[in-house]
Amino acid sequence: MKFLTAxxxxxxxxxxxxxxxxxxxxxxxxxxxxxxxxxxxxxxxxATPSMGGVIFLLMGxxxxxxxxxxxxxxxxxxxxxSGLIGFADDWMKFRSHTSEGFSSLAKLRLQxxxxxxxxxxxxxxxxxxxxxxxxxxxxxxxxxxxxxxxxGTINAVNITDGLDGLAAGSFIISLAVMMIVIPDYVFNLRVxxxxxxxxxxxxxxxxxxxxxxxxxxxxxxxxxALAALCVINGRTLAVLPAGFIFIIEMLSSAIQIFxxxxxxxxxxxxxxxxxxxxxxxxxxxxxTIRFWLVHSVGGVILALLLTEI
Length: 309
Known about the structure:
Elements: H1 2-27, H2 42-46, H3 53-66, H4 70-96, H5 104-125, H6 142-160, H7 166-181, H8 186-206, H9 215-231, H10 239-242, H11 244-263, H12 273-279, H13 284-307
Helix pairs in contact: 1-8, 3-4, 3-8, 3-9, 4-5, 4-9, 5-6, 6-9, 6-11, 7-8, 7-9, 7-13
């Protein structure tokens, strides 16, 4: 049954992505590239369909309907609603023919509101926790830390989505790492298999040279799914190994912003980190594969350390 679920979700994802790509090409649903970006292959990327994440939303709804329960509703509500925030941002970019959708502050407010409501729902359900045995004497920390990590994870995946296959491939690695740190419940395994199938189906068209991008719709959906798997199992700190490369990418952007504003200088040629290596002349595929390797090794090492606690 597990193999059948993986096969069904992968095959359906490939089919839906194929026809969705065709439709996006027909209506020219692409995204203007940022003028302040890395400026490599801009013409090719500007002509690439940019809302592949819409299929994640459809398949998230399908997964929810296939296994409708309170646990499933709470879990899938975070990636689906996060994805809808991303979709609104992508749609605004398309309609305005610019590289900017929501203002950063407006999008952040929506993310924080969603994450606050979702974390409280998990808390009321009685599933909230950072890690078994960690901060047991400081239960008041659980809600704010879980809230910050949930919101941070969604943004970290969004920041990482900048190279062909990087975010989606890293997410698949995250699922493998979570096999080490997330309890082997039937619900968790089923959800991870469903997420693997739909993400692998997207990857079929997203490896370089990409035929489609996931857009903010997809990156918000995957970020929400990663956070939800960790938080809903009372293991919020599992995000550290499972989101290893995403955290590095987010930190690189934070460090760059801080040093520019406070020290008036750059640490990296460009942030997030994957663009730094592009600016140094490394091929996009080489950067992506090396980041996958770092994510795999760092994630597994941190996961093994965490399970020793």
